[in-house]
Amino acid sequence: MQLPFFLKTPAVAIIGETCYTSLIEDFNYRDVPCIKYAISKGLGLGIVAGGAIVKVPQIVKIVQARSAKGISFSSYMLETLACVISLAYNVRQNNPISTYGETFFVTLQNLAILVLMLHYTGKNTSAFIVLTSFLFMGNILGRTSQYTQIDGTVVTAAVVSQGALAFLQAATIPINLFSKVPQIIENYKSGSTGQLSAFTVFNYFAGSLARVYTTLTEVDDILILSGFLLSTLLNCVLALQMALYWNSSTLPVKGEKGDISQAGSSSSKKRVKKLD
């Protein structure tokens, strides 16, 4: 089967000429390697697209409440640190963008959440420092330059060596661990998920689970795979807490309950006066 050029071009760009010919033109659905590769690419692009909006509901929820109550600041700081390192590592490794693209969007959204958390507690100077520090660190870790030697050899230089960056990528495994633990503990202590967005939590878990598959299929890097496996485990715990404390997050506070009862009694008094 021949697809129109406007469909064939992106299809070939996604799954490659060989798999396109095998799966689309030849209908060879016994080509297991190409099927796995096509599924991985589809999942990868879906994760990247989802990553562009995964934390938007969380941002909206914080803005509407003008509060980040129940959200762990240290969790977001550590998660953003891991994201910045992972983003720089993947860029320097020239990995397919379908295997890490969502990290870029998640990093930007995390920065927005951190700024909002500090802003609503009156710490605008700290918000500026946090934002500029992460942007500067990402620029330093990911920046490379090339120059040509006298003999014509092209050399790639970087402020942070590839070996040092690989070490930092390995460090994202414990960083990811500690980024989720404070939030898990916060939820457990309060018996509620506070201003956490259910959409963000559940989609983060689904995305990390799918990312394990795409990494196994497309990237031969045990460091990246280990990080995603750990994230999936801890995101599973957060998703379970969200389900367990679902109704707890909407329970009224004692003070608010008293206010409501008082409002109810006063309104009933008004109705009595009208009847009189």
TrEMBL record:
Pfam families: PQ-loop (PF04193). Belongs to the MPDU1 (TC 2.A.43.3) family. GO terms for cellular component: membrane. Keywords: Membrane, Repeat, Transmembrane, Transmembrane helix, Transport. This is Mannose-P-dolichol utilization defect 1 protein homolog. The chain crosses the membrane at residues 125-142, 154-175, 196-216, 222-246. It is found in: Membrane. Residues 255-276 are annotated as: Disordered. It comes from Dissophora globulifera. It is a multi-pass membrane protein. It comes from the Eukaryota.
